[in-house]
Amino acid sequence: MQYNTSELCDLFADNIDVVEPIFVSYGGRDSYGGVVVTVKCFEDRGLIDIMLQKPGEGKVLVIDGGGSLRRGLIDSESAQIAADNNWEGIVCYGCVREVDKLVDIDIGIHAISAMPVSADTEEVGNPDIAVNFAGVTFLPEDHIYADSTGIVLSPEPLDIE
After folding, report:
1. CA distance readout (Å), 37 to 12, 103, 155
2. What's the pLDDT score for residue 128?
């Protein structure tokens, strides 16, 4: 489904939080949305890869990578696994790598930057917890909507059909 975050802000201004504009779009989808699934990790992508191997239809993985610019948490292999498991998108408060390949994968990806160095894979982190970055708190089961303009968050699904 296509989302227009500008329109969502006009229609639901009192019901949503707007994520600060610190993210760049890297994936093959310009627009995506779904139920939030969270993971908190720092310079380690092992838990991210485990989460992305689960069914992701109607879900968006929100990663609190601590804003690190030193390691790429998502690469083309992770993104392809996510797409193969029907994840709608990934919002990464950290870096991605292999950006030329990410654009060809059918998944929405927002991250703060790109970094060619890969993160560790020791499976260190915490899944399904509240995470806070970019001016908002993301709770598991919140609803997130993203497009080329921005990212908005709602505790309830927005009636947009």
Report:
1. 22, 22, 13
2. 97
